[in-house]
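Hi everyone,

Forwarding the result from last night's run.
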Amino acid sequence: MKMKYIKLRLLLAFVSFAFVCAGQTPAEYEANYAARIKMEMINGVYIPNDLMDAFDELTRLSAPAGLAEFKGSPEDSIRRKLHFGLGRWILINWGLEEGSRISDYMKKHGVAHPDDMVEVIIITWHRHLNGQPLKFNEEVAIIDKRLEEEKAKRDAEAQKVILEKKPHKE
C-alpha cells in the first residue's frame, strides 16, 4: 500500500511539474482543452470531427501522385515510415497533444496517446483508400495489448522499495 502511495506522489509531482513547465495550471489546461475540442479550426487548420472526416480531409490535402503512392504501399511500410512525416503533420496541425475535435473523438473510442492516434488514423486511412475493412477495434486492441505488456515489463523491472521501521530509542 505504501508503495502505491509513493508512486502516486511521484506521479502527481511529475504532472504538476509538467503543468508549471507548460505555463498553465491544471485548471487552465482543462479549460483550454475543453474549448479546443469544440473548435472547427485551430491556427487556420480545419480539424476533423471523426475518422471519416479525417480521411476526407487527408484525401483533399494530398497531391494525386502522393495519394497513389500511399495507397499502393504495403501496410507494414505505412505503419513504419509515415509516422514522422505525415504523422508529425497530423500530430501538430490537428492538435492531438493539446486537444482537438479529432483527439477527443479518438480518446472516446479508446485511443488516448497522441502517437497512437496518429498511427490509427494513418493505418485506417490506408485501409479506407484500398477498400478494406478499417479494423478500428482491432487496432485499439493491439494498442491495449502493447500498453499492458509495457506495464507488465515496467512492473517486473521496478525497484522494490522496502520501508523498515527502526526500533524507537529511549
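The longest strand covers residues 41-42.

Cheers,
N.
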